[in-house]
Every structure is written in structure tokens, then in C-alpha cells.
Amino acid sequence: MHESIQSCVFKNGWLGESEKKLFGRQRDLHDPVEMRFGITLERFSATLQHPLPGAQWGGIITRMALKAFENNTIEAVVTLHRTRENQFFSQPVLAETAQEIYDSRGNKPVLSPVLRSLETAYRKGIKKLLVIGAACHLHVLRDFQERFTYLQDMEIFTIGIPCVDNIDRQRWPWVLKRMSRSPLSAMHMEFMQDFRIHIRHTNGMVEKVPFFSLPQELSDPSIFPVACMSCFDYLNSLADVTVGYLAAELRPDEKRQWVLVRTQKGKTLIDAIRNELTCYPEEGKWDCKKFVMNTAEATIASMKVQSRTYSPDRKIPLWLGHILSGVLSLAGPKGIGFAHYSTDFHLIRHYYYVRERFPEQLERLVPRHVRSILEEYDLPL
Q1: What pLDDT is attached to residue 363?
Q2: N or C: which end of the chain has fewer CB within 10 A?
Q3: How far apart are alpha carbons 217 and 140 in whole angstroms?
Q4: Which of the pair, 201 or 220, is modelled with greater confidence?
């Protein structure tokens, strides 16, 4: 616990020197794409030609981990399994067999102590390790690697997931019950590019809930942990390779995922399965300024409210929500435009969350590129 606090991003800040140490430089403030997505060697969308059964989408992260294990690039994986009592709850695990790695597939949208298994790996004498985690985990890991000689003796590969809106485990059942008609059968959940939440159930059915039709009480920032609302590394910029969905075209039958290769280690991981992928270039129009500005004012206003009673009723009826989602899916940003919009939305939201609640932390927490992005929109600092 003491070591984790010493290396926590809320002590050391997001990105900045950590990015410089990993890449030899910080992201270019004159490059609008690199400012949002971080430093990369290559970016593309891809599908696994043979998707893994039971994976959240196609299973690229799990397949990379399995392949790295099969070809002896690594000896074990620091990751998460689902708990027996809840599909969405997680438990940290050091996966040392192919089956244990395979069992780690699927998103767990609750706060998770992934790095708890790092000490187990060290005590077992493992020298080649893969760590799969969110940005906060990998920031801590990078600091651990610098501070502790016993980790410097390990060769560590990292796969990052884009992450921002986790839920406290105690509150998750309450949140899921307000999202889904059948919370007990839900097994996968994600906010998607069609402006709907996709909830996959144990019978294979996918329930789609428009963002606009969520109960008003789910608009309360307090349902998210303070740490997640203060996150400024949505796209996991210190990972060797980041895999998500934001800039991938939404084709449910293809389960496309977005791959951001950041380091040579990341290239090693993706190259090992490249012949198993069908790859596509990034698509979509970059510009989304009008779309961001349409939501910025309301977003900033909601971050200023620190005490409010929210209604349990839906914001708008489901049928109207589906119409709005359909219109935005056609007319709104797509591909890299959607990734641009989603990144900027979260950076704006979190900047004003911190400014209103923890103004003394602004200098420490907020990376320099966030202010450049706010200036693009002429938003007050």
C-alpha cells in the first residue's frame, strides 16, 4: 500500500515526465492528433479473423497475451478474472497457463487492484511478464520499474485498455439496475459509437440503451470515483500497445477494434498475431469542433454542481432516445472523429471537475496538452 501511494498518479501527476522517460519526449503540442491519442508508431483498426468465443469484442488483447505466452515472449500475465458471484466484478490474478490467460477475457467496469499480482510474480522469480491494465495501473507500474531494482531485472510488456468511467464495486449493482431491463443476466457492457450503451446478456442478446434515455440520477458525477473523474489519460498513453474501440468503425458483425502501437515492445506483441488480423486504416473526418461545443457548456455546468438531487426518471423516453441516437450515428462524428470527440469530452469534463473540487491539484494533475485543447475551444482556464 505504501509503495502504491508513493507511485500514484495523484502524487506524481499524469503523463509529463513519465511520458518523457518512456519515449524520450512529451507529445507534440503542435500535432492535434498526437495531443489527443498520445505518441504512437502506428494506429489502425483490426478484427481477429477467428474471434475468441466469450470475448468482449473480438478478443485481440487476449489473443496477444496468449500468443506472447505460447512463443515464450512472456512467462505469465498480470491481469484480472471475473469473480464467481458477479460477472462484472474482478479479482487480480497472475495467469501462468493458457487457460488462465483465456479466462481473463472481458471487461470488468469496476475499480480493480490489478497490480496486486505483481509481487506474486516477483516472489515466483518470473523474469518475463505481461501486465494488462488501465492507465492508472500503468502509470504506477512505470514508476515502480524506475524505483525498484527487483522490477528492473524483469522484462515487462504492457497492454493498455482505454478507461475512464469505472464504478465503485458497492455501487455497480445500483448503476446496472438503472441501465438494464435484466441486470442479473448482463455479462458485458460498453458505451459505443452509436451513442448507445450495449449490454450483452448470457443468452447472446444485446440490449441497447440510448445515452439520452438514461435515468437522470446517472448524470450525477458522484456515482463515479473521484480518481476516475480526475483521469487525464483516457487512451492509456504509457502502454506498449493500447487496444480499444473508439476510432474503429462500428460493425457488430466484424467486431472491429482500434489498435495504437506505441513502443517496439508493443510492435512485438501485435506483430506476433498480425497474420491473424484483418487490418483497416483509420477512417472518418477529424473535425468535431461543433459537436464538442454543443455539449461543452452543459458539461462544464454539470461539473460545477456539487450537491443536487437527481430524478430517477429517464431524461427522455426510450423511443425518442433511439431516434436521437440514430440521427447522431448518421450525422455525428465517426471513426477518428468519434475518438477525437470522446477524448475531448472527457478531458473537458475532468478539467472542470478538478477545477471546481480540487483547484489546488490542477497544476499537479493536468498535463500541459489539456490546456492547449481547452484553448482550441476558447474555454476558460
Answers
A1: 92
A2: N
A3: 33
A4: 201
